[in-house]
Design a protein that fits this description.
The chain is mainly β. It is built from two helices and 28 strands. It is globular.
Amino acid sequence: MGGVPAWADLENRKKSKRTSSDSDSDEDDDLLCRTGNFVSYSESLPKGILKLRTCLPANQERFADGRLVTVQFHPSAQVVMTAGQDRSVSLFQVDGIRNPRIQSIYLEGFPIHKACFSVDGEQVIATGTHHKMFFVYDMMSGNIIPIERVRGVEERFIRKFEVSPDGSLMLLTGTSGYLHLLSMKTKELIGTMKINGRCTACAFTSDSSKIYSYSKEGEVFIWDVRSRKCLHKFEDEGSLEGVCIAISKNDQYVACGSASGVVNLYTTDVCLKESHPKPVKAIMNLVTSATCVTFNPTTEILAVASRQTDEAVKLVHIPSYTVFSNFPVFRRKQIYLAESMDFSPRSGFFSVANNKGKALLFRYVLI
């Protein structure tokens, strides 16, 4: 693919950072002596109004042809990845102004269901809509590696998956309640777990020691990763059909989104003890099925969305559990059907992938 992109050359970035830090330190000290710390960050995000600025779409230089199924920020570089059902995976440098395209790859005859960065940011894993195989794109070498069969995994299709925060595991959501745990290094099967009913969504805790699996029947099973035993099970209050689940980065909250549109927010300590826990907040701002929930890295915002109706994205302030009233902006339609959402690693950007092939980009405005 033309060699290693400059943004991905970690060794050169480290060297340039070391050489420039010494020369810049004196100038930085001098600047602070003359002007003071002119940019200040609040200790907590205020509720009510969220200061957001709409930027050009993250994939402005290459919109997807049709539905965009994934948008995700790179874990360490200023890069965003998009993947669509047009069989493409694209990388863009995020600056909020031009967002230039870095590169795109095409997976022939492979409409993408989901794509995800590895934790080290060196690979992209992509599953298809009607395939039992998946692809691994090695960004360092430029190779596209097909994983045609995982021994021990007897599934007709492989679509939904999660990567553990420590980067060592990959969890495949199978049919009939089966969960397959793979090694990220070898892509070989480590073990299999099974829930009652059908599993619709899974999430790892931040230390990768536990897995929360959400069933279509509205039950949440908590698994110990090391022993692959079920530690506890609880019922999501009022849920007739579970759809999506997310755990906050500090492991304080669990969000469960159901087909009714209600997103229940729980504290994890209660979920681990009680079989019928009471949510600290039932978020009822969606009128159609909640299909995507995600926390920002600082656990100050919970984003909830439905792909079944236009402009159905809400941002919830934590810990007041109130919805920011100024998002989305209703004067003009721009979000349409939200397929995927993500926050940048330092929460400076928020992106929504829609069914029009765009990865909408919003930036926080510091006051």
